[in-house]
Amino acid sequence: MVQDIERSRQTYQLPEAAPAANPVFFRTYSRRDVTADQQRESWEDVCRRTLRGLVKLGDLTEAEAELVGRMQSQLKSMPSGRWLWVGGGAWIERPENFSGAYNCTSTNVIDWRAFGLMMDLAMMGCGTGAMLEPKYISQLPAIRNHLSIVMQGEIGSVSAGARQELTAVNFGENQVTIRVGDSRQGWVSSYQTLLEISSDERFTSDVQVLIDLSHVRPAGEKLKGFGGVANPIRLPALYERCTNILNKAIGRQLGSVECCLLIDEAAACVVAGNIRRSAGMRQGDSTDQAFAEAKENLWQQDAEGNWRIDPERDVLRMANHTRVFHVKPTREECVNAVRKQFYSGEGAIQWAGEAIARANCDLLTTPELKADFLIHYSRGQGPTWLKSHHPEMPEAELSHRLGRYGLNPCGEIIGENFHCNLAEIHLNRIDPQNLKEQEEAFTAGALAVASLLNHRFQEPRYRDSRQLDPIVGVSFTGLFDFFVQAFGSDWLRWWEQGRPDTVTGIQFRQQEQDYLSRWKQIVHQVVWDYCDRHGLKRPNRCTTVQPAGTKSLLTGASPGWHPPKAQRFIRRITFRKNDPVALACLEYGYKIVPSQSDKDENGRLLDDAFDPRCTEWLVEIPVEVSWANLPGADEIEISQFSALAQMDFYMQVQKYFTAHNTSATIELRESEVEALAERIYQAVETNEGYISAALLARFDDHQTFPRLPFEPISKAEFERLSQEVLMRRRTDDFQAALRRYDSGELFEAGPAGCDSDKCMLPEQK
C-alpha cells in the first residue's frame, strides 16, 4: 500500500524560499546507515521511511496513509523531529528503544532508577524533565557510604569481538567492581549502580569502587542501529564527579540542587560524547530557596575582568529551572521573578493549578467547575475537592491526576511520568483562505501523533502513566507568517501599536480566535476518532505549541507562534569543523566563519574558518521571511514589538488552541519588567489559562554577543549578501555537493530533545 502511495506522489522538494532547509535537513534529519549505498537520505527517502513506520505502528488505512504522506511530502504537516530521525527503522521497533521516538518526557525523581532512566532517555535524544519537589526527592534513600573511585582498564583496550555489552557488577567486602558495558544500557547501568552503592546497607565502612572501562569502545567507532560515532571523552570523569556530589551528602538525603547536579553530569557526559544532544527541565518547589538560587553567580569575574564559570556547577547549564507555585504567586513574587529572568534568564514561575486543571479537563468540563477547583487548589484543598466530586476514583488515579504538572524541557507538555509525541503543522505553507487544506494538514498531524499511542513501554512508571493518561501534542509553526498573509500589513501595524482593543483590533482578535479554535477542534476530533476505532483510551488534551526552532528552518517559518527576529536576517547554523554538510554549504555559496568560542591568544574572535585554531564552524545564510515584500511590511520595526503585545498574542494561542501549554519566549526590555509582571499576575489571578513562559532580555543599544544565531539586516544588505552567495555558488545541486565530501565516518546527531532558539543563546553573565 505504502509503495503505491509513494509512486503516486509527484515531488519531494525542499522549498527554495527556505535557504536554510538543505543545511538543516542534511545535518539533522538525513541518515545513511539505512541505505544500501551508505549515501545520505534525500527528503523523499525520509518521507518514505517515516511513513512506512507510521503505517505499520498505527495500522493506518490507505486513505490515512495517503493524506499523511502527501502532507509531509509537501512540508505542510510533519511528524516529530525524533520520528523524522528514527521512524521506520529497525532500531525503533524494539521495545527497549520506544522512548527514542519522543521529544518530550518528564520523570518524578523518587528513586535511583529515575536517574538511570533519565540518562537512558538523554542517550536516545529525548528531552528530560525532572520533578524535584520535596514530596518526590524525600523518597530517595539517605547517603550512608563514603565512596572512593579507582579507574581500571583503558577505554577500548578489549578488542571489538570480545567486548561485553552489559555492565557487570561484582561485590566484595567494602569493595565493588563495575565493568562498564559497551552499550547505552551499559553506560546507564554503571551510572545508576554507582548511585545505588552510596546508600547500600550491606557495607560496613568506606567503599572502594573500581571502574573498568576496558570494554567501552574508543572514540570514533560507529554506533550501530542508531547512527553516530562513539566518543566517551567525559565518561571517566562522570564517576568521579558524581562521587564528589554523593560524598558531600553522607548522613542525609540529597537536596534538589544535588539531584540537578547528578542528572546534569550524566547529561553532560552524553552531550560531550556526541551520542545525543540533550535538553532538560528541572522543577523545584517555590519555597525551595537553594533551588531558586542554584544558578546565581554561575559566571564569576576576576580582578582582571576575565570571566570564568564555577566548575562545580557548570553542568547546571544543561537544563532550565522552573519554580512550581501551588498557591497563586503574589504581585511581588511575579515582579521579582520577571526581574530575575531579565538579568539571568532563570527563575520562571509555573502555576501548577492551571496545569493540573488543564490535565483534568475531562473532569472539569465547565468553566464553573474549573474555577471552583482552582479556588480550592490554591487553598491546598485540591485532593479534597477532587475526591469529594469523584469518590469512586481509585487512589492511584487520584494521585496521578494531581501530579500532572510535570514539564518537558521547553514547557509545552504537562503530565506526570510521561512520554509525549509531537507533530507540527507548517502554517506558512498553507493558504489562509483554504479551509480544506488546513483541515487536511491538522488531520495528518493528528494521525501521526495518535499512531504512537500504540507503544507499550517496558518501564512500569511510564507504561502505567500512559494507561491512566495518554497524551499527544499537535503543534504548529509559522503562525505569525500565516496571519500576516491572512490579514496583511494592517495586522502588523496593530502589533506595532501594542495590539490595542480598537474596533479593528477586536476584529483581528476574533479572527485569530476563529482560526485557532477550528484547528483545535479538528485535532481533538481526529485523535479521538482514531482512538475509538483502535480501542485506545482517548487523550483528554491533544494540542500544544513547541518552540520549533530547527524544523521551522525546513520551510523558513517563523518559529512557533513567535514573530521573526526581523523581516531579513543572517541565520547562523552551527557545525563541527570540516563537517561534510558545512563543506557542501561552502560549495553552495554560503559563507563560513569560526564560532563564538574560537579566539586567538589575545581573546579576539578568529576570522578564518580554516585557521588551525578553529574548532567549530558557523554557516551564515541570508534569510528573508515570506511576507517581507508585502506592501507596507518593510515599514514595521518588529524588534520594537512590546512585551505586552507578545504576551497578548501568546495568551490568544494559550486560550484558544493549546490544551497543554504554549512554549513561549517573551522578549522584554528592562523598562517593561513591572508591566509584564503585572500582566502575568493578573493572568494567573483571574484564571485566564497562564501556566508558565520563558522570558529573555532584549537590548536595543548594542548586540550583546557577536555571531548570534540571528542578526537582523536591511533589505539592501540582504540583497547584497544574496548576490554574493550566487557569485560564490559552484553548484545548484546541494545533495550532489554533499556526496563529494561525504566520505569516511559520518557524525550523526539527530534532532535535539529541545528544539528551541533559546537553547542556542549563550548563558548570560
From TrEMBL:
Its cofactor is adenosylcob(III)alamin. Keywords: Cobalamin, Cobalt, Oxidoreductase. Its EC number is 1.17.4.2. Residues 157-231 form the B12-dependent ribonucleotide reductase insertion domain. PANTHER family: RIBONUCLEOSIDE-DIPHOSPHATE REDUCTASE, VITAMIN B12-DEPENDENT RIBONUCLEOTIDE REDUCTASE. NCBIfam families: RTPR (TIGR02505). This is Ribonucleoside-triphosphate reductase, adenosylcobalamin-dependent.
